[in-house]
Each structure stands twice: as C-alpha cells, then as structure tokens.
Design a protein that fits this description.
By secondary structure, this protein is of the alpha+beta class. Helices cover 51% and strands 18% of the residues.
Amino acid sequence: MTQTTEINIYEYTQKKLKAHQQNNQEFNIDLATIYEFYKNRLLQYVQHDKVEKMENMLFAGIQSQIFNGYFMAMELMQNSESNFEDDWFKQAEGVIAQQIPDMLRVGSNNNLEEVITMDSLREMIKWMVIEYEGVYPTLMDISLNTACLGALWAFKDEANKRGIHFYKSQHKGIMASLDDITFINPQNYLSLTAVNSLSEVWEIINSDYRGLDKIGEVTVLAVDIGDSEKGLFLNISIKTSLTDLEQDNLLDQIVTRAVVMNTLDREKLTVNLAQVDSFFQYN
C-alpha cells in the first residue's frame, strides 16, 4: 500500500466517522453503549475523586480506538490478498462482528499494544496500571473491542457503498435469533448449541483481548404455569472466575432479554442460577 493510499484512507475514515457522529443515531447509540459498559467495568477500580478523570480519558480513548479499527478495516479491504467479495457482506451482522477480533489480531501480527492501541488510550493505560492493581486486562479489552466496533462500521459503510445489505435473521428463538450471533453487550455474545420447539441451549462467549472463552450457558424452556398460561424456565450457569459485578450484569442482561423477546411479565419467568469453575464437553 502506498503512502498516498494510506493518507486517503486516513482522510476517508475521518470524514465518515465525523458524519456518523453528527448524523447517525445508531452509531451514537453504539458509542454510548460501549462507553457505559466499560465505564462501569472501570468504576470498581477508580477512587471517587478520580472518576471524572477516568471518564474523560475513557471517552477520548474509545473514540481513538474506533478510528483505528475503522482505519485497519479499510486497510484490510484495500489489501489485494484479502477476500472481501460481495458474498462476504451478505452475512448477518453478528456473524461479521464475531470474526473481527481475529481479523485485527492477524492484521496487527498479534501486537495489540503497539498496533491496535492508540496514544489516547495508552495514556490512560500508563496512569491506571500504576494506580490500580488488576486493571490491565480490562484496559486491553477496551483497546480491542472498541477497535472492533470501528471496524464493524467500516464494513457496514462498505456494504452500503456496494448496495449490499447484511443478512437479516429469519428465525426468532426464545432468547435470540437462531440464525445470527447475538451480542448481549460489547464483549459477550450468545451462540446457539441446541434447539427444539420448546427449548434452547445457548453458550455465553466472552471475546476478550486474549481470545474466546465460554463463560456461561443458558438453557431456556417454555413451560405451562397453570390456567393455560405460558412461562419460561431459565437455567443459567456462569463461571466463578467472573467478578460479582460481571455475573450480576450478565444475569440482568439475560433475564431482560427473555422478558422483552417474549413480551412476558417478570413473574412468569423462573430463573435458576449456578456458578461453575469450568465448562467441558463429554462425548
């Protein structure tokens, strides 16, 4: 790639992201969602008098990471060795989003800190890793997953430029679409493992800077609750390695999704929660 092409991509990225921030409600909702998600993750570390500093640095860091992710995706699409034919853009949005972390890892030669992490976020990392023990993994998750959001918007814009629409789910399940990958927050998604007319089994996958990890499982059953009324029974298992805050947030997100997806009163939902050390499959 020539220097001129890189400059053109840089200017194009600036132009598109500025337009999104000024005119695109969906983009701004994505930006606010990922900011609130990681702000809440960081609040458990930060002293009260440093919260405003953290919030300002986080917002600046997220914006720079979204820019870099968008830029890196544009570079990948410009690379003649990359395979982004029209059919690739006809996948479901969740399926595309699921692939992006590995794309950025390959595109950066697995050099997350030096290639994907921009200066604004690096400044935040330098401050927080000295002040707060154990915060580094969360900061690296911010680096990767906010860049992934930028890359996703680059692919959306490219599909739009080609006049192509992402695949729209045709099959609604009890918990989520059966023919897509559903992100329940910026870092965790549901992956279907088994389904029949009355029940579904979903894995909860964590996509962090190190890779993918199964952190939970949800079995949901449609049940009779008397007087011809229908309800749901949820059996949820979550890894003990997650913090109490992470476990509580996952539980809230899953319960809310079940209620909203099925237009269900909360009292018609029974939830059983278990904490497990690990998951494994026995054949």
